[in-house]
Amino acid sequence: MITNERIKEIVNELTLDEKISMVHGTEFFKTAGVPRLNIPPLVFSDGPMGVRLEYNPADWDRPNLSDDYVTYLPCNSALASTFNRELAFDTGSVLGEEARGRGKDVILGPGVNIKRSPLCGRNFEYFSEDPYLAKELAVEYVKGVQQWDVAACVKHFLANNQEVGRLEVDTIVDEEVLREIYMPAFYDAMIRGGAYSIMGSYNRINGKFGSQHTHYLNDVVRDEWGYDGLIVSDWGAVHDSKEAAESGLDVEMSVTPDFDDYYMANPLKKLVESGEVSEELIDKKVEHCLILMNRLNMLDGERKPGAYNTWEHQQKALKVAEESIVLLKNDKAILPLDKKIDKLLIIGENGERLHALGGGSAELKALYEISPLMGIKKLLGGNTEVKYVKGYSRDIYRGNLDEKWQEKSLDMSEIIHVDNDDEAEKKMSELRVSLRKEALEAAKEYDHIIYVGGSDHVPGHDSEGDDRKDINLPYEQDILIKELLKIRPDMVIVLTAGSVLKMSEWIDDAHAVLWGWYGGMEGGTAIAEVLFGDVNPSGRLPETFYKDLSQCSAHAIGEYGSRDRVEYKDGIYVGYRYVDKFGETPQFPFGYGLSYTTFECEQGSVDLESDAYNCSVKNTGSREGKVSVLVYMKGKQDEPEKVLVGFEKVTLAPGEKKLVRVDITDGVIDGREYFAVV
Ligand code: BGC
Could you give the 3-state DSSP secondary structure of residue 230? Predict the structure, then answer.
């Protein structure tokens, strides 16, 4: 490491041209270095679930390399479901080591935006509706990444909670609300987790663009929080050279190849030369770039080499997937299933669907991806005859030839173009009817059926750049599930998706329902292990699963989804804070999740000295199991009924009782009431 004085000296040795070249992209994912002074370029890469595949430096074509396959990790929503800080650290660690192994300096994650509405297309990339859960996991994730001499880049600052109109929407929100709900995950990741960089958002916040916001980036982040890490814009989020220069932003990145014309390239240089922008502002930005490089041992010393696609990484991905699965329903203890079955029918396209290469910037090339179908076959072996039928299909017929940009990230080989939209609709309807018929006929022949459905990364579902239109199961799956349940009420339903799906049409008739998220490369293995009892499920919902959108505050009392202006009238009443206060009964509440065993928690007490809540938890069933103990603080009259303030995951043998210490990391408040939930 070099000293801060030396960093300042280097800044003084740089010419204006050299400085300018360091504060904007000179490729899509790279800034320029200054070889004369041994300053390397900065290399960025997405993203949250694994290191993204390579793109050409100045066009969005892929060079189709054979060496950019990586470990595919469960999405952040899955990670949040584990309520397990160690697994957040491990996830970050895999990502950091792989990023370094691929020669990257900054990994563009974690995404920590709060899930204000289940419609947000990028919810799968985010942790939770709850600021405490999000920040606790973000802190560990960041630490995990950065031990590998790679910077985490916490994104997208600030109030970036919808994809509709994300490039221009003006979010109108009180600063108090920002501080209580939308900022904590950033603050803690930056200050407690020590994140070396953050990314500004595309949207406006109270009138000004997030990536060049002179209030939030300067007054709050730089001055109040004392942050000296790197602030990078979202790709294409800068709109004005002077404002960007005067804001706390350091580096402008974008999506067009006219690198010299970026706001913080030649136009900024001209403003400095004409005296409209002080060169000292540029010096500060360059200093932040050098501080980051120094922290990563890029200027001096030895840097860790990193590694990717190791067996250890795959095992960690599996561990997270296993703990992320949420058992939503298990009437009559249908699950776990017996491994000794002769014949098994699996229905549903998500049984065989692979998800890694989709979703927008979170896409990646997975070294491998075990589908639920493969996971089940792998676990059962050759003595069980497993039949698979699709049951439903994603939309493969297209009339409209206008591809959305995100579709480039999908496997387009299955898309069939027909004359027009009507024709496409007709063909799709015929296809669905025939697939349904096939599934219903097959169902009559089988005693054991597992349905694997849910959502995917098709634009308009769980994907960047657009929101979902509703929370319905896509592709007429409701019709199929209802009809299948009439034939086999004990059919096990597995849903894999990145955000809430409505289940009210059939949930009362279903006995066994498992929620699997996008579980990464070992997601299918984990699902099979849970289905057949090798793993006892311990995931808990990190967000409220609504029966209907009208139960979600953003839609009920707030505003959501306009392209130009959205007022957060829901204030701090996001997720369970709203549901509790306004007496809504969701399908499944925040923190919900069953196990194959049962637990009991005796209410304990807080320890003011050590800022902890101590309680004893007992496994009252007959299987070993893991359980997350959630500690809430009770609210006063004008506050939410409860807020999460601590959690701890423990393993208990059958009959075992343990005293569990749950750290209240923000400190116990004297005179307030706390309680635990298992
Ligand atoms: C996304 C960011 C991403 C960046 C670079 C943007 O469109 O919002 O999350 O890191 O692109 O790919």
Answer: strand
Nearest-atom number in ligand 1 for the CA of 361 is 12
Instruction: Return the CATH number of the domain spanning residue range 599-677.
Output: 2.60.40.10
Write down the H helix ranges in 174-328.
175-177, 184-187, 241-246, 266-273, 279-295, 311-324
520 exposure class (CB count in 10 Å sphere: 0-12, 13-18, 19+): buried
| CATH 3.40.50.1700, the chain: domain bounds | 312-572
Q: How far is CA 217 from CA 204, 229, 243, 524, 574, in A?
A: 13, 12, 11, 42, 24
Q: Please tell me the distance from the alpha carbon of residue 177 to that of residue 173, in angstroms, as a whole number.
A: 7
**Minimal-distance CA residue to ligand 1 atom 6:** 235
- Which residue, 163, 126, 124, 128, is CA-closest to 496? 124
Q: Could you give the CA distance from residue 102 to residue 109 in angstroms, rounded to a whole number?
A: 16
Residue 374 CA to residue 377 CA, distance in Å, equals 5
DSSP 111: B
**Closest residue to atom 2 of ligand 1, CA basis:** 234
The residue whose C-alpha atom lies closest to atom 7 belonging to ligand 1 is 235
* For residue 406, pLDDT beyond 50: no
Q: What is the Cα–Cα distance from 570 to 162, expressed in whole angstroms?
A: 15
Token duo for residue 546: 């609504």
Within 8 A by CB and 6+ apart from 493, the residues are: 451, 453, 481, 510, 512, 513, 514
Residue 376 near residue 386 (C-beta atoms within 8 A) = yes
Task: Give the count of beta carbons closer than 10 Å to the beta carbon of residue 24.
Answer: 27
Can you read off the two tokens belonging to residue 404? 């959305």
15-38 per-position pLDDT tens digit: 999 999 999 999 999 999 999 999
Residues lining ligand 1, Cβ inside 6 A: 46-47, 108, 155, 234-235, 361
- The yes or no reply on domain 312-572 and CATH 3.40.630.30 is no
Local structure of residue 28 (DSSP, 8 states): T
pLDDT digits (tens, 9 = 90+) for 42-99: 999 998 999 999 999 999 999 999 999 999 999 999 999 999 999 999 999 999 999 9
> Which has the closest alpha carbon to 579: 612, 611, 549, 544?
544
SS3 298: coil
Q: Where in the chain is the domain with CATH 2.60.40.10?
A: 599-677
